[in-house]
Structure formats: C-alpha cells, structure tokens
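Module 6 notes. Inverse folding takes a fixed backbone as the condition and produces residue identities as the prediction. Think of it as a translation problem where the source language is geometry and the target language is the twenty amino acids. Below is one complete input and output pair. Work through it position by position during the lab.
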C-alpha cells in the first residue's frame, strides 16, 4: 500500500473488490500488476481496497489479470457488449499486426470493459480520436505487462526473482497475522520461502531489506512448523512485522 493513502482513514472514499474465489497465486499476480501500475491499494483478507479515484484504472487491471489468467469475472453486473465505432466517426488507427493474437484479444477485452467504441480492420485497430489518450494507456499496459518482451529484457531479469514472491510474502503475512492457523497462508508462505533467494531481490527492493524479509519469512515458518504445536503469539508478531515491512512495496 502506498504511503500517501490510508485505507483505514474513515474519511477516505474506498472501493472494495471481493476476490474470495481467487487463488493465492492469482491475488499475488494482481498485487504485482497493481504495484507496477502505481495504483494505491490495500488488502483485507480476500478483499482488495483501492481509493475511489483509482476505480476505473483498477477495473482495467482486474480485467487484464482475469483475462490473462482465465479467471471468471468477480463482478455481478452483466458483461458489457462491444461498442462499434461508427464509420463516420473521427478515428485514430493503430497498426498491431506485429502483436500476438492473445495481446490483441486482451486489448479488445479492455476496450470493452471501459466502454470505448472501436473496430478492427484486420490487424488495424480504430478508435475514436477523443479516446486516443485512454487507448494509448491501455496499449502501453498490454505492451509492458502482457507479453511484448525484448530479448535483452529477458536476460536482464534473469538475475531477479519475480515480483510475485514479494506479494506472496505480503499476503501470507496479512493472512497469518489475522489467523495464525490459516492453512492457505502457511502453504503459500512455505512455497514462497522455498524459491526465495536472499541474494536475488525482486526488482526495486534493496538487498538489505530483502534479506530482512527473507529472515522474517523463515522465522514465521519456524514458529508454525518447528514445534509440536504452532507458536500463535510468535506467529502473529512476526507476521505483522513482515506485513508492515512489505507494505510500501505492494
């Protein structure tokens, strides 16, 4: 959660997303995407909380992650129908011939989610000129997060852990500080601990802080599994420290 927005401020206008039917890995993927998009957010168990000012942008991100991971929509409203761009409307063209079909499908789903008129002519996307700025942002999101990856970027990222490891630690800390006997929280903590390498911090995380995060994760796992019975008091204390340490990054 970002430092300039407090989800617990009683005067703050918030929007809640019930993600109870999402898996831990899917929530971690969503948290990573929200962090990449610099969208302020917080978690209350399986519920995502964002400021009202970020609702439209969050809707786009949720729709993008749902499409990418094949998650059934969490909204109760009926799905929007595509709005065809009128032939006589002033339009802007985007040549997406070099994009993958899955990327063009994702663009379509995001345009539909935002209610923006558009039409395809082969691999050429046409949108209303008045919507050009919004469409530019959507295309940037898909290009940066959806799969147009340069070979040198793959090589550069090889020495870094996926951001999902960080968000999994955060979500595990959030669950376990609320309920030290949460089986899903323990399972995800252990799986993240197995892949976490203290020498390979995720992008944007200082190595000193990453080392401390790994230490806390190990302490948390030990409090839960090393004794004959879980140490509930120690678990809550360590989980809260891990959660608070990770909060600025997720």
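Target side of the pair, the amino acids:
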């Amino acid at each position: 959660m970002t430092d300039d927005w407090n989800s617990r401020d009683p005067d703050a206008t918030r929007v809640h997303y019930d993600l109870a039917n999402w898996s831990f890995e899917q929530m971690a993927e969503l948290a990573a995407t929200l962090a990449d998009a610099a969208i302020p957010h917080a978690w209350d168990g399986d519920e995502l909380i964002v400021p009202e000012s970020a609702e439209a942008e969050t809707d786009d991100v949720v729709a993008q992650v749902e499409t990418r991971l094949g998650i059934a929509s969490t909204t109760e409203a009926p799905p929007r129908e595509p709005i065809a761009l009128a032939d006589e409307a002033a339009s802007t063209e985007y040549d997406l011939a070099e994009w993958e079909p899955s990327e063009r499908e994702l663009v379509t789903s995001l345009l539909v989610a935002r209610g923006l008129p558009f039409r395809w002519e082969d691999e050429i996307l046409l949108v209303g000129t008045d919507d050009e700025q919004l469409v530019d942002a959507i295309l940037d999101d898909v290009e940066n997060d959806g799969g147009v990856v340069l070979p040198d970027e793959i090589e550069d990222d090889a020495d870094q852990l996926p951001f999902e490891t960080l968000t999994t630690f955060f979500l595990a800390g959030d669950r376990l500080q609320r309920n030290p006997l949460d089986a899903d929280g323990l399972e995800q903590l252990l799986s993240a601990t197995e892949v976490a390498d203290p020498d390979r911090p995720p992008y944007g995380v200082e190595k000193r802080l990453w080392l401390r995060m790994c230490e806390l994760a190990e302490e948390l796992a030990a409090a839960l599994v090393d004794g004959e019975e879980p140490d509930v008091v120690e678990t809550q204390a360590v989980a809260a420290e891990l959660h608070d340490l990770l909060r600025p990054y997720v």
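Reference fact for the lab report: The CA atoms of residues 112 and 231 lie 49 Å apart.
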